[in-house]
Amino acid sequence: MAASHRQGGDRLSALPDRVLEHILSNLMSVEAVRTSVLSRRWRDVYEAVPVVDLVDTKTGDRRRRSFDKIRICFDHQVASAILCKGAETPIRTLRLTMFHPPADLLDHWISTALNCGVEDLELKHRYFQDETIMYYTPRQMFGCRTLRRLCLTNWTLDVPGSMDMASLETLCLVHISDSGGMLQLLLSSCPRLADLRLEECLRLEECPGINEGIAVTSRYLRSFAMIRCHNAAGVELQTTCLRSLHYEGDLPPSGSSFIVVANYLAVAAVRIEICQDLSGKEPREIALVMWLIRRCNS
Question: For 93-181, where are the alpha helices, taking DSSP H only?
Fold first, then answer.
């Protein structure tokens, strides 16, 4: 046993700054800040962590001023977490779970991260069950060349006609409303996309110029999941290196293209979950699903 350990020495605090910063980067920002009271050694370590990861736990309605007043205002938490980062500590990861944030502040938070060259952006809105999606995606986020991972929950997709997502590898869209083929425009601007997940997305409409549904043109795509997107049209995956395919939802309508893969033989893992009772279905009604499974397992 090392002498420092036998004598009660703090071996963790003896680690280099880079190692401590990596450890704190895996914590929520609130937890990372709390480590500053451990000792003088830890006082300023969290300021060098390039991650802002916060969850708004308040309940109620901002418009009715019925927030839980015991907790610190989420707006101030985000502002403090961002401002404490010096010029030598650009924000590489921004993860926010929000409950009715002011639109101007939200735009400012996102713009700050984009100007820092953010690589991982995860933005989740919380709503009451009967509320409709009120926030539109800020268009400036779709011109960020440094962005490698983008996860959006409870947004209405609004993208510019010209985008630059050259570095994006992971795209996760949950409960996204798309009116007017915005998703297709986004997918066509992600040439290095490797992992795509669509979950409970609303109105994934066909895009003009695409025969049926949406097309994923990235030749690097290795994993695709479509979860409970019940109103979605067919999907064409033009990659030849797809390894994982996951579908959960209703049976596709007869005559639709369902999911078309450029190279079925490359798919190593297929997971199909039908959200319907199949006991009374005729063979023709499940033919598309069975055909997809056979092609991937042949």
Answer: 103-115
